[in-house]
What we know:
A: 4 helices, B: 3-stranded mixed sheet, 3 helices, 37% helix
Amino acid sequence: MLLILLGVLVLHLIILVLLFVSTAANAWTVGGTSSQDLWYSCLTINGGYHCKPASNEDWIQAVQALMVLSVLFCFFSLIAFLYQLFRLVKGGRFFFTAVFQILASLFVMCGAIIYTVMVPDGGAGTSFGYAYVLAWVAFPLSLISGLIYIILRKRE
Amino acid sequence: MLTFLALAAVAFLGTVPQQSQSIVIYTGWERHALVGSDVRLSCSFFSWRWTSDDVTFSWTFRPDGSRDSISIFHYTGGAAYLDNKGPFRDRVEFVGNPARRDGSIVLKNLDFNDNGTFTCDAKNPPDIVGRPSSVRLLVFENVPIQAGVITGAIIGVVLGLLVLIVVIYYLMRFLVARRVFNLSVSKHGKKKKEGSQQRQGPAASAEPAKASSDKKKQESRKDKK
């Protein structure tokens, strides 16, 4: 039991880190010397690193909001997990934890889908960056984690 | 030893490549403005030399979609020369302070044709090697939504809904628990009454009062329904 709990906790922490890095890093689209989204568009010219704020179109702001919300909900889920770990009756399910975690996975999915559909063609040489990949990796992981919490029962 | 180090430092500084002594010009990256309004394009520079009297500023404009630039402003020899023939005739004003290394200009009464790139080039003799800096002007009909407004709105609404749901949940639990508590108290009271029928006085007056108030409540609820 302790091993399962530890494994589940480690998975949760990994998901939180993935979501945080994906939200904070400006590397959803990269190409050669440029990297942009979600917050800045940065360009490396002749040794100088110039950044300007990302375009403030509606869809980018929506993706920003959804990613931030997913990080927050994953964090709330962690708090709920720790709380329910000590306060839940024997045989109870981690309901709140699961709800928050599944909501977090939903938000990541929505954010990643919106970004995929709406990102303009950056031209030759640009491709999706590591932050984008991390978002798509975090979505199934958080969904699985949420489902585990639904199935998990507290035992002594 | 110390003199040797000092001499070496001076020699090293003397052989510093010329690139690090070039002039660095700062303008904004992008400026947004409404049609018909004024916009200030700022330009300042950094130079290792003192600001000389022969400092010059010049602004050139390249419209969007065009490859030619035209000069719209030049400051030299202590005097500012504004555009008197081109698209910015009578619309440029010099608001900078060359002594403070500021070569900013104000463009008045903007039009959609003013969309383009403005380049500022400053020279501070003998420090003349530098790269001009450009600022893009975007003229809008109405101000586009600011960065972060939608983001903040979405986050605020979702968190607010969360807080609301939690509050409603706990409120319902509290109300249901209180109702259950009241019912159990009334049941307990009835049992007590059956158990000890001698003490009818105050209890009897309390019970009918409570029963009638309960009945009134139920009737009012039925009326509401």
